[in-house]
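thread: overnight batch results

M.L. [08:02]
morning all. the overnight job finished for the chain we discussed friday. pasting input first so we're all looking at the same thing
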Amino acid sequence: DQGWTVGDVGDNASTGIWTRVDPFGTGAQPEDDNSEPGTLCFVTGQGTPYPGGFLGENDVDNGKTTLKSPTFDLSGKDGVIRYALWFSNNAGATPGTDKMTISISNNNGSSWTVMDTVKKSHIDWVTQQLVVSQFVTPTAQMKVRFVASDLGAGTLLESGVDDFKVFSFALNQVPVLDPISNKSVNEDSTLALRVHAVDADPDTVALTAENVPANAVFIDSGNGA
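M.L. [08:03]
and the structure it wrote out:
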């Protein structure tokens, strides 16, 4: 636990409050976290394990619930924020009406700028990467928050967040995000890009990269490829 906090002014959800657990899976909530190995993640409420639990036992109801990151320092740098997200709102009487907003603050939470609004269900973990300077000026007082909001009568909303990471890089660098695994980004002023294509010879692997900035550094993954 790195110091994440649950709750904010205006939170009014009666159930489905963010909690850090090894989740019990349902048709709307994950059974496992995104990490391998790993067990813990934040989800919106924890019901009872199968076969006692049911689909909407502890989903977000009657309002919103907020999850906030600890403060992190990007003074004099830029950053890429990466996280795994689970979002389900396609069940219930009025599917598709709920949402989750992901916002960022550069003044320790005094004000927030929305980076993304999620409305489409994906009942699986997906990874997203966002460049901080595209939304706010990086400072020493950065925070990110995730707000899951139940907006429709009879809807069923479940959300999850895992593997939150911040990669910092020099302001004069251009971030390159891995187009294949979505996991390779700038870290500690080192630019990483992994792109591969298999040659006609099955024993040969050709590595190619396009549109790479002049200050990019190739990092060998060390897996024998």
